[in-house]
């Protein structure tokens, strides 16, 4: 059972299936079936650095190369997985990614697309200026859906 299905008890993460508990440093600290056993140091899980910034949880596998970007003017709205690379998304959006990993749409400058390239797709986090109305939020969501579909089509055409 994945630990992502587990639960937090105090300062420990516990497996929902066997109940094994792990400390914040990744070492096993409790095995309920063997309450008198002190778990050996070899029973451990990998830990990752997590940081909250601007309403987003940032995870770094290993040592992070940079700090999370400052996006204080924006609020996260939704995330999507796009079966396309950054270049296809940039071409579809009509704008280039900036140093923060953000694309601002020329026709909707209050919408930001935060991109995280993966092996075969790109994770896209739709960001929006914090003061926008519910109607603007719906429009932003529809806009990013259109961009996703068009970028995936562009990516497929290039791959063929």
Automatic annotation (TrEMBL):
Domain Rieske, first and last residues per copy: 1-59
PROSITE patterns: PROKAR_LIPOPROTEIN, RIESKE
Gene3D superfamilies: Rieske [2Fe-2S] iron-sulphur domain
Record-linked InterPro entries: Cholesterol_7-desaturase, Rieske_2Fe-2S, Rieske_2Fe-2S_sf
Highest taxon in the source lineage: Bacteria
Record keywords, A-Z: 2Fe-2S, Iron, Iron-sulfur, Metal-binding, Oxidoreductase
Protein name (Swiss-Prot/TrEMBL): Rieske domain-containing protein
Organism: Rhizobium tropici
The organism's taxonomic lineage, starting at the top: Bacteria, Pseudomonadati, Pseudomonadota, Alphaproteobacteria, Hyphomicrobiales
């Amino acid at each position: 059972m994945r630990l992502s299905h587990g639960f937090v008890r105090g300062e420990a993460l516990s497996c929902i299936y066997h109940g094994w508990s792990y400390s914040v440093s990744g070492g096993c600290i409790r095995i309920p079936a063997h309450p008198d056993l002190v778990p050996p140091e070899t029973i451990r899980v990998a830990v990752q650095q997590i940081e909250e910034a601007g309403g987003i949880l940032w995870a770094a596998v290993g040592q992070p190369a940079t700090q999370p970007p400052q996006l204080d003017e924006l609020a996260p709205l939704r995330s999507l997985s796009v079966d396309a690379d950054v270049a296809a998304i940039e071409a579809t959006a009509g704008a280039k990614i900036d140093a923060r990993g953000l694309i601002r749409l020329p026709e909707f400058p209050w919408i930001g697309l935060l991109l995280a390239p993966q092996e075969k797709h790109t994770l896209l986090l739709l960001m929006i200026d914090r003061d926008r109305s519910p109607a603007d939020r719906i429009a932003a969501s529809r806009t990013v859906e259109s961009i996703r579909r068009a970028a995936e089509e562009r990516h497929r055409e290039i791959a063929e």
